[in-house]
Amino acid sequence: MQENSYIILGLKDNATLQEVENAYKNLKEKYQIQCFEEGESGSLGAKMLSKIKIAYNDCIEDIKKREIVGEGSIYQAIKNLIKEGKLNEAQQLLDDTEPRDGEWHYAQANIFYRRNWFLESKTQVEMALTYDPNNSEYLNTLEILKRQQFKVDDEVKAQRQSRAGYEQPREVGGSMTSGLCSYCASCLLCNAICYFCI
Predict the structure, then answer these.
(1) Is the pTM of this model over 0.70?
(2) Pick the CATH number of 5-69 from 3.30.420, 1.10.287, 1.10.3470, 1.20.1300
């Protein structure tokens, strides 16, 4: 939020959506007229139009955030959005949150986990632990993610091993068809016969 966005609109920090919209509308009308004046007055009007537009957008975002958070904490609101599956909204709210401390990184880990980005989730939990190394919730989550990573690693390793060596070809007929399927062997035999018949 730009500095003093509510003050720029002539409002208090707890202004309602309606108050913000009314203030913006009145100031916009005033400065739209002023920006067509000559000289410094017109220049000031144009600058103020831009400034109040930014202030209006900042105030609207702040009001939306207040509505989402309600009486609880910002992290509780993010947690609720994650539970509801509204990951983009949770991410937006988290991106706008400062400071980026242990609780912030833990919330980011939860969003990544819900997106099935397990490695990124684990990294965020590790970062949360740098701020709060004795937090039991962070430590338990990290252990779960490590176990999950080993499980995924084992599955990947098994897939790679099954792909590494192809199934040994089955022998269909004599030495000429060794390693070929019956269809391929028949095609080769037909081609050879046709070649010699010509």
Answers:
(1) no
(2) 1.10.287
